[in-house]
Design goal:
This protein is an alpha+beta fold and 252 residues long. Helices cover 21% and strands 31% of the residues. The strands form four sheets. Strands 2, 3, 4 and 5 form a four-stranded antiparallel β-sheet that branches.
Length: 252
């Protein structure tokens, strides 16, 4: 069906209605309108990081060294970026953390505590890095004193794991390899990064040890990628306390 024709008078009325018009507010409404226009979407006030302002406890036998600021070149920006290094030494090794210049570190040797603060707690980027830096420094302190571990569980028929040397493939002397049998036509062999140790207390268990938590969990994720847990039979490689919710089978 054809659309009805619009008369000339009706068309002129539509054009007149769509023309912009100037609205004048009364004088007593102007201050309220200006306040409403400047108001942000979120009314939540900015608060300092609860995690970042918590003091870090430094155990006995762990030393912390803080370097001076240095200029770090950034190829993606013309702005000058200043950094400082925080070196943590312990009985298990040594780790270095690079932190931005707006984070201040107050290290009390007598009380064995470290307190982090930022220059501007109202700045969103500084608040975000406040808690992140606290967590990274805490992981380094625990790593050089106690170490970090990750347990891999192999769930599936025929899934097996061993830790063996491979002299013809090693990248550094004494490198260990995690050898996995995951149902493929060939075994999966993955070399450990430098500074990490692995053991297989059971055929379906792999224990990873290291002082760098990020390195340990990254290597565990690379192993898990070969057999990601699937939700129908519950087979796969699980990291630490990872669980999965099983689904019902698709019945046609």
């Amino acid at each position: 069906m054809l659309a009805p024709r619009i008369g000339r008078q009706a068309l002129q009325g539509v054009v007149a209605c769509s023309a912009p018009s100037t609205v004048t507010l009364p004088g007593f409404l102007v201050p309220a309108f200006q306040t409403l226009a400047k108001r942000n979407f979120s009314a939540t006030t900015s608060r300092p990081s609860k995690l970042g302002r918590t003091p870090l406890l430094v155990p006995r036998g762990v030393d912390i060294e803080i370097s001076d600021l240095y200029l770090k070149k950034n190829m993606t920006s013309y702005l000058k970026t200043y950094k400082r290094n925080v070196t943590v030494k312990g009985q298990l090794g040594e780790l270095t953390l690079e932190i931005p210049d707006f984070i201040n570190i107050n290290h009390d040797d007598e009380a064995r505590t470290v307190v982090l603060s930022v220059k501007d707690s109202e700045h969103k980027g500084q608040r975000e890095m406040w808690g992140t830096t606290w967590a990274d420094l805490n992981n380094n302190i625990m790593g050089v004193s106690e170490g970090h571990t990750a347990v891999l569980r192999l769930v599936g028929i025929g899934f097996r794991a061993t830790v063996e040397p491979r002299p013809e493939k090693e990248e550094y002397p004494g490198q260990q390899f995690v050898c996995l049998k995951l149902g493929f036509s060939h075994p999966v062999e993955m070399g450990l990064p430098l500074g990490m140790k692995a053991s297989a207390p059971q055929p379906t268990r792999v224990l990873l040890e290291g002082i760098n938590k990020r390195q340990v969990m990254q290597f565990a994720a690379e192993i898990r990628r070969w057999r990601v847990p699937e939700p129908y039979k519950g087979k796969g490689i699980f990291v630490n306390d990872e669980t999965i919710k099983l689904k019902q089978k698709k019945i046609k």
